[in-house]
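Dear Dr. V.,

Thank you for agreeing to look over these. As mentioned in my earlier message, I'm a first-year student in the group and I'm still getting used to reading structure tokens, so any feedback on how I've presented them would be very welcome. I ran two proteins. I've put each sequence directly above its structure. The first is here:
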Amino acid sequence: MPPNLTGYYRFVSQENMDNYLRALDINVVLRKLVCLLKPDKEIIHTGDHMVIRTITSLRDYVMDFDLGVQFEEDLGPVDGRKCQTTVSWEGDQLVCEQLGEKSNRGWRHWLEGDQLHLHMTVEDEVCVQVFQKVK
């Protein structure tokens, strides 16, 4: 049975965000700004339904979805694109596949103790973020 990810997580660290954003064709000014942000995550996980809020001082991004059900994700706040997105479990990892203009786009969330790990991919780039559970 997959873990329940419900909780509030504070930003700890990130690696390779600038290259990840460059692969998404984000302009240099916005890349620099995003690299300075320290996002928090709030996850509400109820059965096969999840809400993942990424919270920053600039703006919040909310994903509200049912596991295993493809939906159109509007990534306008991120890079102006739309994707056909499916989120499902692979063992203890929550895996998102985002089909659209960019290849190999998606992410993985998993827990190690009280830390939430996130690997975001696009093309050949991987951005790694770590968050600490606070409640």
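The second protein is here, in the same arrangement:
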Amino acid sequence: VAFVVCRSLEGLKTFSYLEELILDNNLLGNDLLLPRLPHLHTLTLNKNQISFQRNTCKILLDHLAEVVPSLQYLSLLGNIACPNELVCKEKDEDDYQRYRYFVLHKLTNLKFLDTRKVTRREREEALVRGAFMKVVKPK
């Protein structure tokens, strides 16, 4: 397990066999770029600055799918991209579920997202409708 307070993630490329990486509380945004880490199975990005602005989160999730192909556990709690009714009164459980479908559509190998196990039903729904599940509500 690596604990990093980071400004740059460039040094991670020397840890190609890294399996778990905790990058919580680092002010990281959607422009996060990781080196290829083929053995990484656990990544936590809690309490950073990842959001669903425009297509930037899609780009980040596509990047993660490419550089961390073994990823099974991802946590994005405390980011704007992860809607949480306890933190923001405008968000509800439906918003969170749409977020899960969208992430699972992009990262098909995940077994856990945030604190919850990925169910068979969620995986099936993500395959069918996940691409259309960006969390946006009309005002």
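From my reading of the second output: DSSP finds three helices and six strands in the chain. The CA atoms of residues 47 and 79 lie 5 Å apart. Does that match how you would interpret it?

Kind regards,
E.
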